[in-house]
Each structure stands twice: as structure tokens, then as C-alpha cells.
Amino acid sequence: MTTRCAIIGSGNIGTDLMMKMRRSEVLELVALVGIDPDSDGLARARKLGIEAPHTGIDWVQQHPDEVDLVFDATSAYVHVRNAKILEELGIGAIDLTPAARGPKVVPTVNLTAHLDAPNVNMITCGGQATTPIVAAVSRAATVPYAEMVSTVSSVSAGPGTRKNIDEFTRTTARALEEIGGAERGKAIIILNPADPPILMRNTVFAALPEGTDHEAVVDSVEQMVKDVANYVPGYRLKNPVTIEEGPFNTPGGVVPHRVVVLLEVEGAGDYLPTYAGNLDIMTAAAMAVGEAKANHLAGASK
């Protein structure tokens, strides 16, 4: 039994997601839906024999009995409208925009808690890369403050990413707090114009109070990196996990130490070049959530 899916948004993320979904044993891609009839994503879908209408959410409204689950790869403001329509149709949604109309989900941290939620949010690329690290630190210590900086290649940031910079910083910072467990969070994104393009890089700082077991923090972070790499193969530490001596005056107060984690994400190259790890981690995480929901639905129907 497979779960019938439609992808809304035929840009970079939607097209990369389509290429990954073709390999799934539990997700059946019914249609890639866009709004530009000449988009590269829709053209590729047609060549693969996949239905590729250019009427946006209207296509889903006209075919509600053909779709069990929608992956929305449009933009934050478009998903706000789409979410209402999908809710009225009774169709589940996995939101790949920063709109955050449903609970935020990181597969390695809180996926099982939201398998029945009608709309789940994949946060942002930086959020998927760094929230697990803050959660790993929180397993071993109180985190009064956490900060992340994501640097992505400028050529890998499409119109949707550029229109959603404010939503990116707000949604990611909240994820560091709500899912990562930090008492206060901050997020920054940098679009790097270097040529040749760089891989996605992420830096995570987490404040550590007096009495923290540093070895437990390092072990927890290293295990989390392995767990994320199970569904994002290009996710890895760029340098060993480091505990720095302070004191550090942070927005969460003065602390004696902080942990610094440097990450790199290399994409799988399913649609875009491997430097676009920022796109790959979003589509890989969305696939992990979609397949878990499909298996959950299959189990519930037995």
C-alpha cells in the first residue's frame, strides 16, 4: 500500500523532491503541480510520465480523491492560503516553507509526536541542519542561549528563499527554542557569492552553564550527527566538536563555556549540483517525514 502524493511548487525544491520520491517504496507521486507551464520542473515531470499541471492549488481542489498527502514547496505566503484549502479538503500537508502553520518537525527529534498532525512544518534548511545539534546539547545540559549561522551558496538560493529571509530567521530561532530546547535562540543566514559555489556550512554556538558534563555534550552531538546522516548522507562535522573556555556574555546570561559545532552539508545531486546541500537537507527531511507518515497510516489501516 502506498500513499498518493502531490508536490505543489515546481522550483528547485519541488523538483529535487520529485527525483527523491521516485525511489520511495511507500510514497507514490501522482503529480508535480506548478504555475509556470514552461518551468524546467514541469518539463522534467512530463518526460518521466508524471502528471504536471500548471494550475497550482486549483488542480488539487479539482482532484481531491486522487491525493492523500501534499508536499508544499511554494513560499511562506502562498502556503498560508494553501494550508486552509488543504484543511478543508481533508488532505494532509508537509510544508517545506517557513510558514509554520502546523507543528515544526525535525525527524531525529520530534517526528513521532506529530505523525497524526494534519499539517507539519519542515522549518528551514538551516533549522533542519542546526536544531538537531541544539537538541543534542540539551539532552546533556541546560542551554540558556543557542545561536546558529547558515552560509549557503548564493546560486542555490532561489526566489522563494530570497523572499522568505525574515521568515527564515524567525522560524529557525523559534525552532532552536521550541524543539532544540534552548531558552533563547538566534538565527542568521548568509548568501555567499563565491565562485565556484561553496557547500552549505553551519555554525552552532550553545552556552554551557557551570557544572556541565562536557564529555556528555560532545558524545550527544556526535551521535546526533550520525542520526541525521541516516537520511541526509552528506551531513557531517566539518571539524571536531569544540568546548571553548569563557566567560561568555550571551543574551542568556554569562556562562563559563560554550560548545561550537561546525557542520557541512553536501547535497545528493538528485536535481541540482552537490553544493546545494541547503536544498537537499530540506527534501531529504521531508521525505523522512512523508515516509514515516505513510508507514503510520498503513499501520493504522490494518
TrEMBL record:
Boundaries of every Semialdehyde dehydrogenase NAD-binding domain copy: 4-117
Keywords, sorted A to Z: Aromatic hydrocarbons catabolism, NAD, Oxidoreductase
Any GO MF annotation of the entry: acetaldehyde dehydrogenase (acetylating) activity
Reaction(s) this enzyme catalyzes, per UniProt: acetaldehyde + NAD(+) + CoA = acetyl-CoA + NADH + H(+)
Highest taxon of source: Bacteria
The keyword NAD belongs to this UniProt entry's keyword annotation: yes
Active site, per annotation: 125
CDD domains: ALDH_C
EC number(s) recorded for this UniProt protein: 1.2.1.10
SUPFAM superfamilies linked to this entry: Glyceraldehyde-3-phosphate dehydrogenase-like, C-terminal domain, NAD(P)-binding Rossmann-fold domains
Residues that hold NAD(+) according to the record: 10-13, 156-164, 278
Family assignment from sequence similarity: Belongs to the acetaldehyde dehydrogenase family.
HAMAP family: Ac_ald_DH_ac (MF_01657)
Name of this chain's protein: Acetaldehyde dehydrogenase
Lineage: Bacteria, Bacillati, Actinomycetota, Actinomycetes, Jatrophihabitantales
